[in-house]
Every structure is written in C-alpha cells, then in structure tokens.
C-alpha cells in the first residue's frame, strides 16, 4: 500500500461506504493508497478500483474496514481531503438510517435533500477551523441537488429490478423516497423515545449519525455530494413498539448493503462520464469563491498552504 501526501490519480468519483458496506463488488483492485492530508489520514486506506469498463473509482470505508471508528471520531476532514487529492469531483455516500415515518420502511432507499444538525459540536466541521482564514459556505441546499435528481431514476430502476431474494429480510419490494429530511444526531447511543418523536415534529424523515460534517466538508471542498440512505429500523417513535437496537439494525444491514452495491455498480460508469464531460457537477465548482473572506494579507502562509490541499484554485 502506498502512503503519499495525496497525488491526483484522476479518479473522478468517490464512494464512501457506511455501516455494512465495506467494499464494492465486481471491481478490479488497482491499488490501495493512504494519503496523508493536513488533517491526518483517512478512516481507511482508499481502494482505487476499476469497473469492468475500465472506469476508475475510489472507495473509502467510513468507519474503517473493520468498523472500528465510531461516528463522532470519523476523520471526515481527512476523508474528504484525501478523496479530493485523488482528483475526485463527486461523492456517493452510503448510510444506514432509521426511519421517522411509517411509510419509510426498513429495506427502503432514501435520497434526502435536507438535513437537521443534531451533532454536538465535538466533530471538527470545517477545513477553516483553527486557521486565520474565515469562510462561510452556502449550505441551504446541503446536497448536490442536480446529482440527487440524476440519481433518482437510476436508483429507482435498480429497485424495480430487485429480485425477491434481495429483499427477503424486509419481505417487500424496496421503495425509493425522495425530497426527505435527514436528522444527524451525535450518538453513539440511539435516541430516546421523546427525541425520536420531537424529530418527527421538526420535519425529520430519517436519522443517522454520519451525514455531518461529511456533507459540509464536501461543500467546502467544492465536491458534489449525495447521500444514498438505506433504512434499517423505525427508530424509537412508534407507540407500543420496541425501541431501535443494534440487533434490529443488523437484521437489514447486510441485505441493504447488497442492494447498495447493485446501485453503485449501475451508476458509477455514467457518473464518471458526467464528471468527465457533462454539466451535472458544475454547480459545486467555484462555489467557495465568494465564501472566503477576502483579507488575504492577514492570512497566515501556513494556513494558505494547508487550505491549498483542498482548494488549490484560491490558495
Ligand atoms: C450501526 S447503527 C448506527 C450507525 O449506522 C450508521 O452508519 P453509517 O451512516 O456510516 O452507515 C449511522 O450513521 C450510525 O453511525
Ligand atoms: N435509528 C437510528 N438512529 C441513528 N442512526 C441510525 N442508523 C441506523 N439506524 C439509526
């Protein structure tokens, strides 16, 4: 495995695997790389693999290959910076989530478009933190909306073609839900019944512990970022029903991961083509230009060096 300072490998698409998704299928592993970034090393070495077509993608396991990193300790800055250093422009992030709505059932897929932040400020959430450079990224639309819309039809197609053995655990054909709001909690304990009900009143539809600060950092690094959420449980809001437990989550985790691999396999070639020549990802390019406060004379050179790693166009 190579350990570098981060070298552009011309890989345009990155995949972040969440709980249960520690590798992709039908890929030829070309190399493993472990780039050192100004924010440390990523959660796991990044696997650079080739699809059957030859298209290269970068895969990173969010919690480490053996799931040893809890959500609050995921080195998200290093993860995003490392992917960017390889040339990545778009990230498909997978996540196991709880459902806050009756109609969003275990086994279903969700492409959220909004986030409610319930993390507790213990996770470094900005590349600019601790530097002499101040920046305010726009985050009103926290996901790359064009990318999310583009994914909708493609994920739908995979779910339409899912065979009964693929959704045997949930016992019903998986449904794709769009335009939903995800709550990101700190964890690692699951929510109380009262919290779970409160999130519903706030407008939350699903819940996880991982989408933040990942999505914020992807925005700061001008990367297109979409979350493909797979539902494992009903959290703890249902009257008269038992609360979510890890055992409950594990029941659907592996079936969901299997279908997630199908989704990845079916979209990665087209996404790579879009990243190469389409205009799907142009929204994010240049988005930080006017977010950085323009007092460059007072910005420390060491901070500019650090930030150049993710935003070479401005530093
Ligand atoms: C294993 S249950 C809670 C855990 O699962 C989700 O992880 P990920 O988003 O990486 O799939 C959730 O966010 C929690 O970290
Ligand atoms: N109920 C839940 N709460 C938070 N994260 C989760 N990941 C999967 N299920 C979850």
From TrEMBL:
Q: Which InterPro entries match?
A: MTAP (IPR010044), Nucleoside_phosphorylase_d (IPR000845), Nucleoside_phosphorylase_sf (IPR035994), Purine_phosphorylase-2_CS (IPR018099)
One annotated GO molecular function is: S-methyl-5-thioadenosine phosphorylase activity
Q: Which GO annotations describe the biological process of this protein? A: L-methionine salvage from methylthioadenosine; purine ribonucleoside salvage
Q: Which positions are annotated as binding substrate?
A: 209, 233-235
Stated EC number for the protein is 2.4.2.28
User: Where is this chain primarily localised?
Assistant: cytoplasm
The reaction(s) annotated as catalysed by this protein in its Swiss-Prot or TrEMBL entry are: S-methyl-5'-thioadenosine + phosphate = 5-(methylsulfanyl)-alpha-D-ribose 1-phosphate + adenine
Q: Which residues form the Nucleoside phosphorylase domain?
A: 13-264
EC top class, in one word? transferase
Pfam families tied to this protein? PNP_UDP_1
The protein's job, in short, is:
Catalyzes the reversible phosphorylation of S-methyl-5'-thioadenosine (MTA) to adenine and 5-methylthioribose-1-phosphate. Involved in the breakdown of MTA, a major by-product of polyamine biosynthesis. Responsible for the first step in the methionine salvage pathway after MTA has been generated from S-adenosylmethionine. Has broad substrate specificity with 6-aminopurine nucleosides as preferred substrates.
As for family, the record states: Belongs to the PNP/MTAP phosphorylase family. MTAP subfamily.
- For this entry, the protein name equals S-methyl-5'-thioadenosine phosphorylase
Organism from which the protein derives: Pycnoporus cinnabarinus
